[in-house]
Amino acid sequence: MSRRPPVIDWSADFDHLDPRWTEDPYPIWDELRQKCPIAHTERFMGAYFATRYEDVRTIAYDTEHFSSRRPVVRETRPPLTPAPPITSDPPEHGPAKNVLLPVFTPEAINRHEPRTRDVCHELIGRIAPKKSCDAAVEYAQEIPVRVIAHMARRLSETRPIICRQAVDLTISQLCGDGAHSAVNVIATLPGREHF
């Protein structure tokens, strides 16, 4: 494994995999907000990092100049398999977005708040007695999958399979491996018409 070159100038050569960034990014971000609110790097096939809310908001709504086709900053080329609407731009993302919008309105989401709270309490109850845990694995990754499964009225016995496949899909987006196999497994699950 090759050693990563150290970052000398965060504004012109940021590296979110640098130990200083991963251990405590907040001082770096604060400095960037003051000195260079939109940092750039040639690492990761070239990327920009907006540090201020106003800039992030402007970029998110300026689909003429900015794209959502490559939302994950990584060292290898992303898979060509799109995941609309997240990795698509207008007008291509419209049909997928229109399917999702009605179930994610504030009113629709509010109907699921009691179940979401139950899921969170159950997961916390499971990890509370432990001396330590991986909160991402044992808590955070479970919540969206379980709530969406509830929203789709999925059978509880398929939740572990769906959760594993959702994690696989996320990993494939980050690492580029196995995207097609994960999609193929989801396509064979009962109730797949909800996906």
Number of helices: 11
Instruction: Give the overall average pLDDT.
Output: 79
Question: How would a textbook summarize the main sheet?
Answer: 2 strands, antiparallel
Detail the poorly predicted runs: 176-195
Order of helices and strands: HHHEEHHHHHHHH
Strand order of the largest sheet: 1-2
Gross morphology is globular
- Overall helicity: 40-55%
What percentage of amino acids are in beta strands?
A: under 5%
Structural class: mainly alpha
How many β-strand stretches? 2
End-to-end Cα distance: 38 Å
- Domain count, please report it: 2
Rounded to an integer, what's the Rg over CA atoms?
A: 19 Å
3D structure, described in words:
- The protein is mainly alpha-helical and 195 residues long.
- It is built from eleven helices and two strands.
- Helices cover 50% and strands 4% of the residues.
- The chain has a two-stranded antiparallel ribbon with strand order 1-2.
- The protein has two domains: 1-66, no CATH class; 82-195, no CATH class.
- Helix 9 (142-151) packs across helix 10 and helix 10 packs antiparallel against helix 11.
- Mean pLDDT is 79; it is low at 176-195.
Note the topology.
Elements: H1 10-13, H2 19-23, H3 26-35, E1 38-41, E2 47-50, H4 53-61, H5 94-100, H6 106-110, H7 113-127, H8 135-140, H9 142-151, H10 159-175, H11 179-188
Core attributes:
50% helix, disordered C terminus, mainly alpha, 195 residues, 2 strands, 11 helices
Short description:
The protein has 195 residues and is mostly helical. It has eleven helices and two strands, in the order αααββαααααααα. The longest helix has 17 residues, at 159-175.
